[in-house]
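Reopening this ticket.

The earlier resolution said the output was attached, but the attachment link was broken on my side. Pasting everything inline this time so it's all in one place.
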Amino acid sequence: MHNIVPAGENALLIYFGDKIDATLPKKIGNFANQLKNTLSDVIIDVIPSYTSLHVSYDLNKISFQAFYNKVEVLLDQQDSSNSIVDIQTTHIPVYYGTEVGLDLERLLAEKNLDLKSFIEIHTLQEYLIYAIGFSPAFSYLGEVDERIQAPRLATPRIKIPAGSVGIAESQTAIYPADSSGGWNIVGRTLLDLSLNNPDNIDKFHVGDKVNFYSITRDEYLKNGGLL
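Inline output:
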């Protein structure tokens, strides 16, 4: 069931549900792509979130009612479609070491886990991309196993290095660029997820998945990793 509401003079907010649900992200992501492909001449921006999709459009090219009607028709088409959803999984190499995992030693002590067990828990599953954050390459991933969940830091750090992998509550994520933040940092990837690489603008999609795999300290350093 969908609910479409105005969100300013030239935007709509489309609700696909009223609570976070693992089945929603792919539906929202697919519909976002459908909108961009079908109405690209009038759409300004499309922003997916956990349960909704924010769509802004050009009022100089289409009226509110005409755009609303087109969106409604596309939603009806999606509901009646039985097409198979293609889910992509991106595999991310991570070095889990206390030199780069700024909160790793503390978390191991708090959770009463050794490093090997922690790595196994964090890398065991494929994480669903629930939403995209401040950068197209910052994905909110869930759900983190309860054994390694941790609340955000009481005092956020001023600078977290690019590539840092963090945990906050039931989510995990990668910082694509140097930035401030309050997530618990447990490792670092060598992948360049900055927007200096134009491929990263479209690297992650809501509804797809991410899997982390562990690399050794030597592998990390040999490939240009910094401690």
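Reporter confirms the inline version is readable. The chain has two domains: 3-80, 89-222. Residues 89-222 form a domain with the Cyclophilin fold (CATH 2.40.100.10).
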